[in-house]
Amino acid sequence: MNVSSNLLSAVSLALAALAMFYSLWWPDIELAKNVKIPEHVADRGPLTRQLESVLKLEALPIAVASVTVAALAAPPAISVFDQFFRSLVKSGWKTFDSYNAIESIFVAVWVGMLLIAYSTSSALRSVKGKLRDLKGK
After folding, report:
1. Coil/strand/helix, residue 100
2. What is the pLDDT of residues 23-39, one digit of tens each?
3. For residue 3, which of 109, 89, 114 has the smallest C-alpha distance?
4. d(C-alpha 127, C-alpha 49), whole Å
5. CB neighbours of 9 closer than 8 A, spacing ≥ 6?
6. CB of 104 closer than 8 Å to CB of 8
7. Helix 45-54 vs helix 101-136: crossing angle, to nearest 10
8. What does the pLDDT look like over 80-129, one tens digit per residue?
9. Do residues 14 and 68 touch, judged by C-beta distance below 8 A?
10. What dihedral angle (degrees, nearest 10) is formed by the CA atoms of 51, 127, 67, 111?
């Protein structure tokens, strides 16, 4: 699969949008992950609502969006990896004579998406766990 500059632009724009929401919402998500659960049940109401809000309006949307975008970009990225390794096995170091900057940058952008997808998915699980602990204690 050939990676065009249009595909690179689209994926880079998607990563920029994800990064913007990530940077906006990450402080709230981080606070929700690390909140201390009050000992008294009566004190948990406002905190429960706050964590539910962070979960539904921030952690879940950014996790779903980042996983979706990374998954959509996966086929061409995997194809680039596959072509590179097949060429490396077949041609050795001569593979680098046909270096394609667009494909290389595309793969780097995809790896960035994977990192954001991993981070946001992990944070989503943490917030859900904290909310479960808050309701269960």
Report:
1. coil
2. 999 999 999 999 998 88
3. 109
4. 12
5. none
6. no
7. 160
8. 888 888 887 888 888 788 878 888 888 899 999 999 999 999 999 999 99
9. no
10. 120
